[in-house]
Design goal:
8 helices, 333 residues, 8-stranded mixed β-sheet, 25% helix, alpha+beta
Length: 333
């Protein structure tokens, strides 16, 4: 098991981030999804918890085959996905029971809490989680490097300035002075209990988690002018419509062929000029028929007469034994 705590600060309030988070997750999932891969939303519905109160339960399937490293693709099926269940009781969320489609010993568990501070609360997690040994990792949306293939100038907080809020153009050290500021605290547990691969896989998964958190939070801020004026009802409607479009985007596609109602001759179906016509008759095609004028070759006699074992005969060859001629008369002594 490998446990890390990520702290991601944002130039927003906790209440503002609630809308921005829902908007970002839906739009990001749609952008990252393609034919056969991406994030499929299975369930997204209200949920009541006796401890945390009203919340939202979301179940997703995240298809990842092409995004795995070569050493992982060599041992996983072509269709590979992780099932994710999340309970959102904002400002507290649980993302758990993340299971792999073919590895029962793989799981990811994430607890998240949000506070209006710059990541300074060392005791935000309670209970057993409070005493677990872990590495604390700060993620800076402005200054941390992201994989080059994911970089977009329009989503760079150092270059972006919001027209609606006036926030942006974040510089190194912005977390010390910026107002407003909030922090997303994420306690991430990765388990992969397979001897020989455990350390490598758990470290790789944490690297992926960190990249996803960095990219997603950069986008949430860079898209602030798109969601800033939305109400909760409006962002839920956007979420519903986007999830429906995303599911269609990664779903099963019909083959790219056209079917017409043009009637065809009763004897043949149309085909390319290079292909022979296929008769629809139930009779065998000519090249499989036996010519009527060809004499049938006899491979064995019509009847086989066996010799009387009480009589003596000279030695016989195998071919002569199956000859249709009568056997010679016994020698006269």
């Amino acid at each position: 098991m490998l446990l890390k705590e990520y702290r991601i600060c944002m130039p927003l309030t906790v209440e503002e981030y609630r809308i921005g988070q829902l908007y970002m997750i839906s739009k990001h999932s749609h952008e990252q999804s393609d034919r056969g891969e991406g994030v499929e939303v299975v369930h997204n519905e209200p949920f009541d918890d006796p401890v945390h109160g009203n919340g939202q339960l979301t179940e997703k399937k995240v298809y990842l085959s092409s995004k795995l490293p070569s050493w992982a693709r060599a041992v996983v099926p072509k269709i590979f996905y992780v099932t994710e269940k999340a309970w959102n009781y904002y400002p507290y969320t649980i993302t758990g029971k993340n299971t792999c489609s073919f590895l029962p010993k793989f799981s990811i568990h994430i607890e998240t809490k949000y506070e209006d501070n710059k990541g300074s609360n060392d005791d935000i997690f309670e209970g057993e989680a409070k005493d677990l040994e872990r590495e604390v990792c700060f993620i800076d949306i402005a200054c941390d490097e992201i994989p080059e293939r994911y970089y977009k100038e329009s989503e760079d907080p150092k270059l972006f300035r919001s027209e609606k809020t006036g926030r942006g153009l974040l510089k190194e050290g912005w977390r010390e002075e910026h107002q407003p500021i909030m922090c997303s605290y994420k306690l991430v547990t990765v388990k992969f209990e397979v001897w020989g691969l455990q350390t490598r896989v758990e470290q790789y998964v944490h690297k992926v988690v960190r990249d996803v958190l960095l990219i997603g939070h950069r986008q949430a801020f860079a898209w602030v002018d798109e969601w800033y004026d939305m109400t909760m009802d409006e962002v839920r409607e956007f979420e519903r419509a986007t999830q429906e479009a995303t599911n269609k985007k990664i779903g099963v596609f019909p083959p790219a062929i056209a079917i017409t109602d043009i009637s065809l001759p009763s004897s043949t179906r149309s085909a390319p000029s290079s292909a022979p016509s296929t008769p629809l008759s139930t009779d065998a095609p000519e090249f499989l028929s036996v010519p009527k004028d060809r004499p049938r070759k006899k491979s064995a006699p019509e009847a086989l007469t066996l010799p009387d074992p009480s009589q003596k005969y000279p030695p016989r060859t195998l071919s002569s034994m199956f000859s249709p001629t009568k056997p010679p008369s016994p020698k006269q002594e």
